[in-house]
Amino acid sequence: MNLPPQLPDLPLFRTIAEAAHELGYPAYVIGGYVRDLALQRESKDVDVVCVGDGIQLAQAVGRKLPNRPRVTVFKNFGTAMLPTPDIEVEFVGARKESYRAESRKPEVEAGTLEEDLARRDFTINALGLSLNPNDFGALIDRYNGVQDLQDKIIRTPLDPDVTFSDDPLRMMRAIRFATQLNFDIDPDTFDAIARNKERIQIVSQERITVELNKIIMAPKPSYGFKLLFASGLLQLIFPKMAALQGVERRGQHAHKDNFYHTLQVLDNVVEAGADLWLRWAAILHDIAKPPTKRFDPKVGWTFHGHEDKGARWVPGIFADLKLPLGEEMRMVQKLVKLHLRPIALVKETVTDSAVRRLLFEAGDDIDRLMTLCRADITSKDHQRVARYLRNFDVVEQKLKEVEEKDHLRNFKPVITGEVIMQTFGLSPSKAVGELKEALLEAILDGKVRNEFDEAYAFLLELGQRKGLAPQPAGAAGTAPSAATQA
Ligand code: ATP
Ligand code: MG
């Protein structure tokens, strides 16, 4: 850490100071940029607050910069953005805000620097560095933000009930920053989240999901989910996930707590370098365990079909959370559906045919599926985990061999529906689909190689068994033959 934070000696800051001075506006670098200077994190943007008109200041700065960048003005917000080669600078006039109970949209009025700092979310985000000639670079720290950075604490500058009730999104932000930075949340602040959790309902799902995805992208997302659960927020924003928590016992049979298991799997895929969507697949892989839970006196707890039900749930969950509904969603859905398959291969003797089928179904997502499945091997018994992982290596090796041999990852049968129709003079019909399916099965079973001559010979054989005669060359694809009508 770099405490107290120091303003880097950039010409940009001198220029802003000069322009602010000419306009007679006290100006400060404030918020996330100052925090990130202390934490030695990279920042994407700088926020400048002036006691005056932020848009005017931005325009004055723009005129002074060598390449005269274009200022983008957001009139409704009273802010202006100035792109510079290194970083974007956002200008705003100091403001005070008052909130109404039913909305998180504040009434905004011009205010003093003190008022502006008081409406910030956390003490570590309420630090400023002066851009004024008389004390250029001086630290403004009204709420002991530097101490909280030192102690790694997230705390609201004002009474947390006021801060959170004013803008309930801050509850998500508190947990997001704690997770990203690996900070604790001050107990009074945390208690206030639990007390005010219901207020999250007035926040749009889009904004909640932005914070949720930032938690998920943190180095150890399980921490954030534990905070969300402990505060009661998770139960409101993602009840299906909260429902994974808990253990039920009958006699000596107890199942594992699927919430903590899911978090372990999530952290495991993160360790393996997962992107956002593989992380989502980890979160959702067991999501349908609660409704599929049964007790069987012979074998104990079962969750039969949870992978299929979970996969069916994925579109609805994505829609509710306002996550994108395209390719990413389909990939997550596929991973949820297939997540038991590689581990099932560990238990059986691995046949080429089973491996081929898995490769065919997983397609390009096979590597992600294997990462998820490996991450899914959790147990308190380390020897058991190690044994499973060793067996898993065997499956992975086998996958590699079969893939190299048969290239099933982007597998397309060499015999297309077109070829089938032409061969037997068929028009699109159930018969064509059945032939295609039978060919695919034979190839996946390894009875026939996916190579034209061999597959074509097999097709003729299949046709013969069904009483289909090949069409003479030239007549292909014309009127349906007698055979189809039969
Ligand atoms: P990051 O850019 O990593 O999300 P940040 O702290 O820069 O973190 P921004 O959303 O860019 O967050 O906001 C910049 C600053 O504006 C914050 O540091 C904080 O001082 C203030 N701020 C942002 N959102 C809120 C909010 N909902 N309530 C109060 N203050 C806020
Ligand atoms: Mg920022």
From TrEMBL:
- Cofactor(s) the record lists: Mg(2+)
**Lineage top rank: taxon:** Bacteria
Q: InterPro entries from the xrefs?
A: HD/PDEase_dom, HD_domain, NT_sf, PolA_pol_head_dom, PolyA_RNA-bd, tRNA_CCA-adding_enzyme
- List GO molecular-function terms, semicolon-separated: ATP binding; metal ion binding; nucleotidyltransferase activity; RNA binding
Which is a Pfam family this sequence falls into?
Answer: PolyA_pol_RNAbd
* Biological process per Gene Ontology, one example term: tRNA processing
Sorted keywords for this record are: ATP-binding, Magnesium, Metal-binding, Nucleotide-binding, Nucleotidyltransferase, RNA repair, RNA-binding, Transferase, tRNA processing
Residue ranges annotated for the HD/PDEase domain, each copy included:
254-378
Q: Which family would the database say this protein is a member of?
A: Belongs to the tRNA nucleotidyltransferase/poly(A) polymerase family.
Q: What is this protein called?
A: HD domain-containing protein
Q: Which organism is it from?
A: Hymenobacter oligotrophus
